[in-house]
Amino acid sequence: MARLSSYDRMMAEIEADPEYQRRLAQHMAEIDERQRMQSWAADRVRAAGFDPAEGRGRKLLEKIERTAGDLCLARTRRGTLCIALGSGNGWRCRLHGGASIGPKTDEGRARAMANLVQNRPK
Ligand SMILES: [Zn+2]
């Protein structure tokens, strides 16, 4: 077995201490939490007018993180920002996406034209 220096022995003793392990875990959790509050998702929650650290803001943050989505943030008729999850182009929700702008790819346009011909009234 390799010989341990007095420093290594001291460190091994410290690392074996349950109190040290508990405080280290707590410290790591605090670092994670701080990084989380600086994340892009937390910025989006703040943009919606909520504090990502507590209450409803925290729930919103969890929702964004869980789904890897984004908030809609369209202005509602009440004047508040929509906090539903968005999707697709522009990341608006199902209520705020607006009308379809039609097929985008050449393949999609061709398919649309084929359907048009196929379904033409006789
Ligand atoms: Zn919306």
The main pleated sheet reads as: 2 strands, antiparallel
Give the bound compounds: zinc ion
3D shape: elongated
The helix/strand series, from N terminus to C terminus, equals: HHHHEEH
Strand order of the largest sheet: 1-2
**Could you tell me the number of beta strands?**
2
Unreliable stretches: none
What is the CA–CA distance across the termini?
Answer: 91 Å
Structure characterization notes:
This protein has 122 residues and is mostly helical. The chain has two domains: 1-38; 40-122, no CATH class. The protein is built from five helices and two strands. Helix 3 crosses helix 4 (55-67). Residues 72, 74, 82, 84, 92-93, 95-96 line the site of zinc ion (ZN). The site of zinc ion has 8 residues, from loops.
Question: Topology, pairings included?
Answer:
Blueprint: H1 6-16, H2 18-37, H3 40-47, H4 55-67, E1 70-71, E2 85-86, H5 106-118
The protein binds zinc ion.
Short description:
The chain is mainly alpha-helical and 122 residues long. It is 53% helix and 3% strand.
Q: Any descriptors?
A:
122 residues, mainly alpha, two-stranded antiparallel ribbon, 5 helices, 53% helix, binds zinc ion
